[in-house]
């Protein structure tokens, strides 16, 4: 029987009439009737409970069949509309991501991480200020002044000698008395 001819109305006398491939394991009412009654229940109460159980199990089978029919129909509609499985997956992921972002757990985690980031930023800023202050103190120390003076002396000797023409080092631009060779080996 095709899905268009199936009656999925739960109030219909033909409810649950689907192809044999969609039926679940049948409920064996004979086994349920043979089960011993639970202590404290009369035989009449046990019969009523067994009947209700059989009815509920039958409804479950019917609902599974209806759900399967609806899922097939949904698949057919999606196929006709050209919606692929990938599109459905994208929509599901997008919807799930949105649902997660509006959840209380996500919001609390986000707030906690934001606060932790602010505290870390403040701590690093304080540490950076302390390091800058220590470097400033070190720069003003006698040892650093002595080192700075020595570097300055060496620099003035190197740069001062070039400005006076006292060195014989070739200029990086190649100007001077000697022409640069055509090829310079490395």
TrEMBL record:
UniProt entry keywords in alphabetical sequence: Coiled coil
Stored InterPro entries: TPD52
Keyword Coiled coil belongs to the record: yes
GO cellular component terms, A-Z: cytoplasm
Pfam family of the protein (one): TPD52
Signal peptide start-end: none
Coiled coil: 39-73
Annotated segments matching region Disordered: 1-22, 155-186
Biased composition (Polar residues): 1-14
Family: Belongs to the TPD52 family.
Name the UniProt record assigns to this protein: Tumor protein D54 isoform X9
Organism of this sequence: Bos indicus
Lineage summary: Eukaryota, Metazoa, Chordata, Craniata, Vertebrata
Gene (name only): TPD52L2
């Amino acid at each position: 029987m095709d899905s268009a001819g199936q009656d999925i109305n739960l109030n219909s006398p033909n409810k649950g009439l689907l192809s044999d491939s969609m039926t679940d394991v049948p409920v064996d009412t004979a086994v349920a009737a043979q089960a011993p009654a639970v202590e404290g229940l009369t035989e009449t109460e046990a019969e009523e409970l067994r009947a209700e159980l059989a009815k509920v199990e039958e409804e479950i089978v019917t609902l599974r069949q209806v759900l399967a029919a609806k899922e097939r129909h949904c698949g057919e509609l999606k196929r006709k509309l050209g919606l692929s499985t990938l599109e459905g997956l994208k929509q599901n992921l997008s919807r799930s991501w949105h649902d997660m972002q509006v959840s209380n757990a996500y919001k609390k985690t986000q707030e906690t991480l934001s606060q932790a980031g602010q505290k870390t930023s403040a701590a690093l800023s304080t540490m950076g200020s302390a390091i800058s202050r220590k470097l400033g103190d070190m720069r003003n120390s006698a040892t650093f002044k002595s080192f700075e003076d020595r570097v300055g002396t060496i620099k003035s000797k190197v740069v001062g000698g070039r400005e006076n023409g006292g060195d014989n080092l070739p200029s990086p631009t190649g100007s001077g008395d000697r022409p640069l060779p055509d090829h310079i080996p490395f």
